[in-house]
Amino acid sequence: MQQELDKQRQKVMNNKILKPLLQCIESLQTPCFSLDSQLLSRGIVGFEAEISTEIYTIAQQLKPWRKGPFYIGNFFIDSEWVSSKKFDILKPYLQLNGKRIGDIGCNNGYYLYRMLEFSPRELVGFDPSFLAYLQFLLMNRFLQSPIVFELLGVEHLPLYTPPYFDILFCLGVLYHRSDPIQTLKILKNALTPGGELFLDTLMIEGHHEVALFPKERYARMKNVYFIPTQKTLENWLYRAGFKEIQCLDIVKTTIEEQRVSCWSSEQSLGDFLDSSGQFSIEGYPAPQRIYVYAKI
């Protein structure tokens, strides 16, 4: 198993463009800081201190920052997504104390940092994006948290000695998977008995047991497959082996949550919708997300 894990990690880290940045970050000599509680109260992960301009230059080279926001020393990283909005939806339901937690598709680790305040036993993030890993690594050079970042995707969870996790988070991943039921089965099989799943995904309105399957792109995303109704998503979870299924919230994505910033790409949600804001640029219903809790 260890050889397979190392093989997958090495495959991602062979990126010739980003690898010099990895070496640069690993060579940084930095003091250790604690997460600033006042920043956390505003949904910002980070700390305040005087640091060198070199750190700012490295952070700029790691754009786009999709998740956040972060504060590193003396500069603010205003990410494309205001991820605190999603975390605030889930926070009232979280009981993570002493639990092994996995975050599938963790991006740069924003949610994992937010989970530290709940005193989990272990935090492991899974994401095959080398850029996201470097963003996490830069932050963690200062915070030196116990978070483990695996350069792996959900398909690699079976390598992680299942069942291993008490709680899994799968946020914004399922609609990128061409076989959603198989993906949910992988998540279920990685959970210990009584394990819990927090999931959010795109959804469409309707009472029928159907799903939208975009012809090519959805909101200019080319890797979107099935976008279910609530009933269909619940059926998928049931078929995958989850028994207790609860809808926590349904929220339309707005430009207050996802927008262009000086740390993001040049386009964001406002560019992916038509002039009415009710439909994607391709003519599909505008993005909205369903947040679900499920237990085995």
Q: Could you walk me through the main structural features you see in this protein, from its secondary elements to its overall organization?
A:
This protein is of the alpha/beta class and 296 residues long. Helices cover 28% and strands 22% of the residues. It is built from ten helices and twelve strands. The chain has helices at 2-12, 19-26, 37-40, 53-61, 84-90, 110-115, 130-143, 180-189, 230-240, 269-272; strands at residues 45-48, 70-73, 75-77, 100-104, 122-126, 148-150, 165-171, 191-202, 211-212, 227-228, 244-252, 288-295. The strands form three sheets. Strands 6-5-4-7-8-12-11 form a seven-stranded mixed beta sheet. Strands 1-2-3 form a three-stranded mixed beta sheet. Strands 9-10 form a two-stranded antiparallel sheet. Helix 6 links the parallel strand 4 and strand 5. It starts with a helix and ends with a strand.
Rounded to an integer in angstroms, the radius of gyration calculated over CA atoms is 19 Å
Query: Strand order of the main beta sheet, please?
Result: 6-5-4-7-8-12-11
Shape: globular
Q: How far do the termini sit from each other?
A: 25 Å
Query: What is the mean pLDDT?
Result: 96
Count, helices = 10
**Stretches with pLDDT under 50, minimum 5 residues:** none
SS content category? alpha/beta
Percentage of residues in DSSP E strands:
15-25%
> What is the element string, with H for helices and E for strands?
HHHEHEEHEHEHEEHEEEHEHE
